[in-house]
Amino acid sequence: MKYWKNITIDLPEIDLGAATDKLIDLNVLSITIKDKRREKDSDWYDDMVEPISFSSDTHQISLLVDGEEDIDVLMNIVRKILCLDEPLSYVEEVIQDQDWEVHTQDKFTEIIISDNMRVIPPWVSKPNFNGITIIIEPGSGFGVGTHPTTQLCLDWLESRIKVGDSLLDYGSGSGILSIAAKKLGAAYVAGIELDQRAIRNSMHNSTLNDLEIDFHNSNDHILGKKYDHVIANILSGTLIDLSPKFKSHANKRLALSGILIDQADKVINAFSEWIDLKPHSKKEGWVLLDGVLHT
After folding, report:
1. Number of domains in the chain
2. 20 to 30 A from 74, CA-CA: which of 83, 137, 277, 281?
3. In a domain, 148, yes or no
């Protein structure tokens, strides 16, 4: 019977992002970086100042390999590629053939956002839905619809986007918010994201949804451009740092998520010079703020 092995490795103090780039040519089915921390403690997306640093203190590398693979040999190859001296510590999980679909779909299956919106991966086929279906394949970009902050953003888009609007998705991750806005009727959508791997993932996801969306990894592409709406799902400290950029691009309304409820007042005060932000919705300890520009 066909089976696979999922090998989770604890590596010494190195940048796991750089490590995965070096391991890309390994004879494995996939390489994943896993966060060891609680979700609330995790910096689970780019801060738009620097890409996430995947430290081995906080993350692990997971290799999915054929069940017949000799793991001792594989670990020696990994050690040589990464120039490590000590034997590697790892945990091995065996996945049987009949469990593969369940194993995959347990990670990401249909997510109902509202009566009119859902998110599905490309391997799920559930045609009976009278609303907007967003297809997202998990990859390097944050946002498949499972996290409360992403759901808050999708809810906001449903309530605010009108046909013909323009939107800037700052810190676009997987592209899920850009895709949702486009499907809700936005005429023009642009996404900004630092991580080039996330850009590739978001472009792939837009293709899965039969859409063409402009995703960029530099502010240079949007200099001087205004958008009806600007939305950002980033850490609160970075949102505050980005206030001048948001002001330069927002034409009507701004929405900010990635904010814990006890951080809301600080963010509101930081933006008060040019916009009155108020809580729009809350979910599992997170809040989305939005507001209309001063006139």
Report:
1. 2
2. 137
3. yes
Co-location of 175 and 246 in the same domain: yes
Alpha-carbon distance 292 to 289, whole Å?
A: 11
Range of the domain at 208: 141-292
Element at 172 (helix H, strand E) = none
CB 289 within 8 A of CB 259: yes
Q: Tokens for 269? A: 């005060």
Question: Which residue matches tokens 């205004």?
Answer: 226
> How far, in Å, CA of 231 to CA of 249, rounded?
11
Least confident of 81-90, 227-236, 255-264: 81-90
Give a yes or no: residue 20 inside a domain. yes
The rounded Cα 144 to chain-centroid distance in angstroms is 7
Q: Which residue has the tokens 């390097």?
A: 140
pLDDT tens-digit readout, 176-230? 999 999 999 999 999 999 887 788 889 999 999 999 999 998 888 888 899 999 9
Q: Please indicate, yes or no, whether residues 149 and 217 belong to a single structural domain of this protein.
A: yes
Neighbour count for residue 217 (Cβ, 10 Å): 16
Instruction: Specify if 267 maps to a domain.
Output: yes
Tokens of 153: 């953003």
Which SS3 state, helix, strand or coil, does residue 198 take? helix
Considering only CA atoms, which of 218, 220, 274 is closest in space to residue 243?
274
112 within a domain of the structure (yes/no): no
Alpha-carbon distance of 85 to 224, in angstroms, equals: 52
What count of Cα atoms within 13 Å lies in the side-chain half-sphere of residue 66?
A: 5
What DSSP character marks residue 88? P
